[in-house]
Write a sequence for this structure.
């Protein structure tokens, strides 16, 4: 009877935690906006660079431009991640029985490591210019990367990033983390609708010239 009562209390507490998400929190609103602006702004910048960077631009200028874009993307993404963590920490948490807590922690750590494996291995294979939209600056790869992780996922960077946010949500037992992670996933999917066709078009133009 006590066990049943305890389960009811936990269920009620978790329901209240979900319902008590502070949707009036200005920090939450700001974080949601930054999640959207992050890929939106870097895609706009990259397309502008591809459109207005002269064809005769020296190679070293193209690399310098890509490195500056890299610094901006990395900095803005890190700022977004910081905001997400702060938002999760400032919102209500779910309550679980103590015996399940170590398992949840192990799962969250495992998902985080898997996500980082996809992210870091992608970066290793693509390099700075391949990762941070160097092709928009006129720095094109000789051939597509087909080895791991690209032989198991089409977009391992975005998948790895999403897995890392799922891990953070589990680690902090955060209801609002579920919503933010869902927003990140949707934003990434929308970004891919613009990035993939445009990148294919860039390389198609290269093939025509050759």
């Amino acid at each position: 009877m006590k066990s049943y009562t305890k389960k009811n209390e936990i269920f009620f507490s978790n329901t209240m935690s979900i319902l008590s998400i502070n949707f009036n929190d200005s920090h939450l609103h700001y974080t949601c906006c930054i999640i959207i602006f992050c890929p939106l702004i870097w895609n706009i910048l990259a397309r502008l660079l591809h459109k207005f960077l002269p064809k005769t631009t020296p190679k070293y200028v193209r690399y310098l431009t890509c490195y500056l874009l890299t610094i901006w993307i990395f900095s803005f993404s890190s700022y977004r991640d910081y905001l997400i963590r702060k938002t999760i920490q400032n919102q209500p948490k779910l309550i679980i029985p103590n015996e399940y807590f170590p398992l949840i922690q192990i799962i969250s750590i495992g998902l985080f490591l898997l996500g980082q494996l996809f992210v870091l291995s992608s970066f290793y294979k693509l390099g700075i210019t391949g990762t941070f939209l160097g092709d928009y600056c006129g720095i094109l790869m000789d051939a597509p990367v087909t080895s791991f992780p690209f032989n198991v996922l089409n977009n391992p960077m975005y998948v790895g990033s999403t897995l890392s946010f799922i891990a953070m949500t589990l680690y902090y037992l955060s209801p609002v983390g579920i919503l933010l992670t869902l927003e990140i996933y949707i934003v990434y999917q929308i970004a891919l609708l613009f990035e993939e066709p445009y990148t294919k078009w860039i390389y198609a133009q290269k093939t025509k010239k050759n």
About this structure: The radius of gyration is 21 Å. The helical segments are 2-19, 26-52, 59-90, 101-131, 156-171, 175-209.
